[in-house]
UniProtKB/TrEMBL annotation:
Gene Ontology molecular function: palmitoyl-(protein) hydrolase activity
Family in the record: Belongs to the CLN5 family.
Keyword Transport: no
Signal in keyword set: yes
Role according to the record: Catalyzes the synthesis of bis(monoacylglycero)phosphate (BMP) via transacylation of 2 molecules of lysophosphatidylglycerol (LPG). BMP also known as lysobisphosphatidic acid plays a key role in the formation of intraluminal vesicles and in maintaining intracellular cholesterol homeostasis. Can use only LPG as the exclusive lysophospholipid acyl donor for base exchange and displays BMP synthase activity towards various LPGs (LPG 14:0, LPG 16:0, LPG 18:0, LPG 18:1) with a higher preference for longer chain lengths. Exhibits palmitoyl protein thioesterase (S-depalmitoylation) activity in vitro and most likely plays a role in protein S-depalmitoylation.
Signal peptide positions (record): 1-29
Catalysed reactions, as listed in the record: 2 1-octadecanoyl-sn-glycero-3-phospho-(1'-sn-glycerol) = 1-octadecanoyl-sn-glycero-3-phospho-(3'-octadecanoyl-1'-sn-glycerol) + sn-glycero-3-phospho-(1'-sn-glycerol); 2 1-tetradecanoyl-sn-glycero-3-phospho-(1'-sn-glycerol) = 1-tetradecanoyl-sn-glycero-3-phospho-(3'-tetradecanoyl-1'-sn-glycerol) + sn-glycero-3-phospho-(1'-sn-glycerol); 2 1-(9Z-octadecenoyl)-sn-glycero-3-phospho-(1'-sn-glycerol) = 1-(9Z-octadecenoyl)-sn-glycero-3-phospho-(3'-(9Z-octadecenoyl)-1'-sn-glycerol) + sn-glycero-3-phospho-(1'-sn-glycerol); S-hexadecanoyl-L-cysteinyl-[protein] + H2O = L-cysteinyl-[protein] + hexadecanoate + H(+)
Annotated keywords: Glycoprotein, Signal
Name listed for the protein in its UniProt record: Bis(monoacylglycero)phosphate synthase CLN5
Top-level lineage group: Eukaryota
Amino acid sequence: MTFIMVDMGSVCKFVCLLIILNSVHLASSFKWPVPYKRFSERPPTNPYCQAGLIGFCPTGEVPDTMPKFNPTDRVEVWALKAPVWEFKFGDLLEKFHIMHDAMAFNNLNTGQNYTMEWYELFQLFNCTFPHLLQNDTLLWCNQGAACIYDGVDDLHWSQNGTLVKVAEITGDVFNKFAMWALNDNKTGIYYETWTVEEKPGGKMWFDSYDCASFVLRAFDELYALGATFNHSVHLNYTRIHLYSHEPQYLGNASVVFGPGANKTLVKDIIEFYAKFQSHQSMKDLLEHLIEAYIEIFKDGKFYFFYNFEYWFLPMKSPYMKLTYYEIPLPGKNETDLSHREKKLVWHYDEKAGVSHANSKHLSVSNEDKNTLHFKGHADDKDKLHFKKHDGH
Ligand SMILES: *[C@@H]1O[C@H](CO)[C@@H](O)[C@H](O)[C@H]1NC(C)=O
Ligand SMILES: *[C@@H]1O[C@H](CO)[C@@H](O)[C@H](O)[C@H]1NC(C)=O
Ligand SMILES: *[C@@H]1O[C@H](CO)[C@@H](O)[C@H](O)[C@H]1NC(C)=O
Ligand SMILES: *[C@@H]1O[C@H](CO)[C@@H](O)[C@H](O)[C@H]1NC(C)=O
Ligand SMILES: *[C@@H]1O[C@H](CO)[C@@H](O)[C@H](O)[C@H]1NC(C)=O
Ligand SMILES: *[C@@H]1O[C@H](CO)[C@@H](O)[C@H](O)[C@H]1NC(C)=O
Ligand SMILES: *[C@@H]1O[C@H](CO)[C@@H](O)[C@H](O)[C@H]1NC(C)=O
Ligand SMILES: *[C@@H]1O[C@H](CO)[C@@H](O)[C@H](O)[C@H]1NC(C)=O
Ligand SMILES: *[C@@H]1O[C@H](CO)[C@@H](O)[C@H](O)[C@H]1NC(C)=O
Ligand SMILES: *[C@@H]1O[C@H](CO)[C@@H](O)[C@H](O)[C@H]1NC(C)=O
């Protein structure tokens, strides 16, 4: 009897193993791109997460409120763009086309206008990589949210960026949009820097969720509410892509790091994120992105965090790319969007002959206004070797 029990036990273990293997197999057929998770409400931020010098939305309206217009008011909708951190980098990031997107509403009846943007509560670097705490746990300060404030700084947006009217709506449409915006802000709580795809123009595994995606979905919502957009206006948006074979699901923090965790995996993840621990010095952002880039193609792996869950990305060439392509305003019938993927911006070529350079000497060539080409080589973690690349 005892013998049979034991035997049954191992049969069960075998069957269970089969079931587990089978469910692992099933689990690999995910719905792509993985939908960005909506939450029922925004949780309080971890007190460890602190904004730098300037807090989130310092001049904003009363939190979680939107202005309310007279239903018959005429309201202009504007698209705004400015280079990210131009105050720190001059126009370097403008040449890289890392642009910040925002929108504005100008009420023609009241003469009041408003700027609206969706951005990181604790800045971009904090949203892109977690903090590695003393006890080897990871803490993400990756919330993002919408901020609406009085006025539009026309000069700021127009001088090195974009300030263009895209539509005119009624106060009624604005009020409906405002309801949508409050709900969107409550349920879409975290920022995602990366767009993860199979290859340039290929299958998308994960979509980004950033300032640009806010403007795009806000315009889509306005269109759904009846706004007509001016299709003579052409707007391009920044995307930072990672390229990977089919991502492997790892699980949430309690599965990955909790009791019974795979120690090898934990060590590997910690080592990966340990490379990106310069949350304080924003001036190093560009260098860290490039450093990240090198680590990614050197090891062919990336630990990715989405919907508060970890994934493993088996990275593949061209590993990482920054694009600045047009996305038409809603209502324009455009089905073929493949043109968005034609240009390479950061293209790594392992076989390239290399010229020595330190990452500090990253030179920006601007012979083609839209793209910055360089070839990189990663034989030394602390040095970047690259040369100008004539493009494809
Ligand atoms: C990133 O988060 C850390 C920890 O909260 C904080 O000290 C730092 O100021 C943040 N960085 C920026 C640029 O806000
Ligand atoms: C969005 O949420 C943030 C964080 O809770 C809040 O500070 C902000 O006021 C909200 N924005 C709007 C437009 O309601
Ligand atoms: C916003 O209002 C100010 C003050 O009236 C005006 O100078 C500015 O041009 C307006 N900008 C937009 C985009 O409506
Ligand atoms: C690690 O440290 C943080 C901050 O001190 C703490 O909140 C967290 O509970 C700790 N985690 C573990 C697993 O000890
Ligand atoms: C535009 O760029 C120039 C050159 O980088 C800079 O001096 C100027 O302050 C920028 N303008 C605005 C409004 O940020
Ligand atoms: C549409 O946009 C174009 C380009 O910016 C502009 O010349 C034109 O006046 C706009 N049309 C309307 C009706 O606003
Ligand atoms: C983490 O994932 C496990 C397994 O899917 C689940 O049981 C648990 O509730 C999750 N924990 C959180 C905090 O979501
Ligand atoms: C643990 O993680 C490592 C690294 O990802 C992996 O190679 C190994 O197969 C995992 N072990 C188990 C038992 O899942
Ligand atoms: C905007 O995108 C289009 C195609 O998507 C491209 O042809 C154009 O050069 C881009 N403009 C800039 C300024 O990069
Ligand atoms: C959009 O374009 C497609 C393909 O060219 C066409 O079949 C479809 O009817 C068009 N839709 C509209 C609303 O014009």
